[in-house]
Amino acid sequence: MTIKEIREIKKLFTKERCSVSRLCGCYVNAEKEKVASFSGSLLGMDDSEQFKYLEILKKCLSGSPDKNLFNIDIPLAFEKDSEGYRLLSAMRLSKLSDESVMNEFYDMIIQTFHHSGNYMIIIAADTYDIPGRSALGDLMDDASEESFSYFLCAVCPVELGKPGLKFSSDEGWFTAIDRDWIAEAPMTGFMFPAFNERSTDLHAALLYAGSSDGLQFDLVYKLFGSELPLTAADKKAAFGTLLSDVYGEDCSPEDVKAVHETLAAEAEIIKNEPSMDSSLSRSHIRSILEKSGATDAQMERFEDSFDAVFREDDELSIETIYNPRQFMVKSDSVDLKVAADRTDLVRFEKIDGILCAVIELEGAVEVNGVNL
Hints:
It is built from twelve helices and 22 strands. The chain is α+β, with helices and mostly antiparallel strands and 372 residues long. The chain has three domains: 3-224, no CATH class; 230-322, no CATH class; 325-372, no CATH class. A hairpin with a 5-residue loop joins strand 5 and strand 6.
């Protein structure tokens, strides 16, 4: 799913647009025992309670690609004969109304989700009448041609509230706060099926992780039959390895700077063309290196190097491998940061046989707090 597609679904989780047909959940203690479960209507709750649930669910559609949000492809073999996919499909088709299916799902989460404390599983079912788009790309609510039936699941740690004092109007002074068990922001979650190309994709899901602790292999493999996706940090490191492998021993700071400048130009094109996707294919990456000055001999290493560092289903985006804020140069004792669009101020030279970064100092100059 693209950021635009994720945002389109996220906008549904507001009081004004909410059409969640059913809300289900289960509370699990630290001993992996079910403490309570519930099922009901979100729309029947009072405004403050409804708002809290919507905020939790929306969180599972928030964050950055490859850091918090991950597209998951479900293998066809897994779809044919697996408990996980059978449950996902049954939950969607029943719109969470089959109690036995829901209990099976809770049991699967309890068996595969690793957390030392209490937590809450919350699931919402919804059907979205997908609006058509005008020639200008605007949504047209009266031109729906397809309904998207899906559910969103969030797993939230439940922590004991902090002790403290509160003002009591009855007592006329501060009294102790009663400590309660409070559901925190989701640690992990997912949406099934995916909303790819603004349509139902039963062969994919969207995974959410609040932090690296939310990326859990057992849970992802049991539900989707997939390996853990690479994070943004993983992909950026892999891209760095690709550059090192392609350029080889001849890789120089100027080569890396040239790639940065080509990526900056690509990012600017995408920024000015809202309809353009920011994803980068293998051929797109190859073109970027060629535009950056990689030689024919170096590009002969590209295909094998790409296969060595990226998996077939890994998705790359401009946001993952390009930092629009700064260009960085690091050594054991030096850490330089230059505005991303001012790499022209930096050049690399060998002085007395030592590689040096030469930086042009424009405008007012300050050294260690002293204006020069």
